[in-house]
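Propose amino acids for all 241 sites.
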């Protein structure tokens, strides 16, 4: 019969006196199986603790030995390199020294080129992101202001072909009007929208609230952007990088 290590008072009362003698009552009112004096039980616990300690010691020893071997290998490699250098230097072996330095320089140049390539890729990605951000912001605001209901997507497609990003010498990017060949022209955003309102091909997708015509003093076609300042150049939305 296998005895439980912990039983309730009711279970204890159901046992005969011989089995009850193997239990003792704890502070919580439960009955706990007595293990004191059980040599086999204590021996198992002791052996288990001993094995765990041996495993911990073995792990610590392996880690220490591994670290020591790594340090020794690094020291041997450094000493070997220094010895080869000193030997070539003492023998005045210029050719060997030059070859060694050329190999080192070649390796460093390759690493530098790889880093430069990564840097160029990141710059290009950032440039594309900025251009899309600037043009996209302008186009969305124009679409919101001028597109007829359910014609937003069509007007957005048209404007995306007539507005492109332009990088200035000071590192700022601005949205500029371009012709149908993708070449930047002198027209402003206001003038582009005025021309489109005059063109019957766009009458079905544009609302009637056209900006002022060419040559007239006007505000930015988007109104609130740029603080409402007057402008006679391409839409002045700039981002520094």
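Proposal:
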């Amino acid at each position: 019969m296998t005895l439980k290590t912990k039983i309730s008072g009711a279970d204890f009362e159901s046992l005969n006196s011989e089995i009850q003698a193997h239990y003792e009552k704890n502070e919580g009112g439960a009955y706990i199986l007595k293990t004191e004096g059980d040599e086999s039980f204590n021996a198992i616990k002791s052996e288990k603790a001993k094995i765990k300690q041996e495993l911990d010691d073995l792990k610590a020893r392996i880690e220490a030995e591994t670290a020591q071997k790594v340090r020794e290998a690094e020291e041997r490699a450094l000493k070997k390199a220094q010895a080869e250098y000193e030997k070539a230097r003492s023998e005045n072996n210029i050719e060997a020294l030059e070859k060694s330095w050329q190999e080192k320089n070649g390796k460093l140049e390759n690493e530098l080129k790889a880093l430069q390539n990564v840097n160029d890729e990141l710059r290009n990605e950032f440039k594309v992101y900025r251009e899309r951000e600037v043009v996209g912001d302008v186009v969305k605001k124009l679409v919101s202001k001028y597109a007829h209901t359910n014609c937003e997507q069509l007007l957005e497609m048209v404007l995306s072909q007539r507005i492109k990003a332009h990088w200035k010498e000071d590192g700022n990017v601005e949205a500029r009007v371009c012709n149908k060949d993708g070449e930047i022209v002198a027209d402003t955003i206001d003038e582009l929208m005025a021309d489109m309102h005059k063109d019957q091909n766009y009458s079905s997708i544009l609302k009637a609230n056209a900006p002022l015509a060419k040559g007239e003093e006007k505000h930015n076609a988007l109104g609130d952007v740029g603080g409402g300042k007057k402008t006679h150049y391409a839409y002045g939305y700039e981002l520094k990088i």
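The chain has two domains: 51-116, 127-240. The two ends are 82 Å apart (CA to CA).
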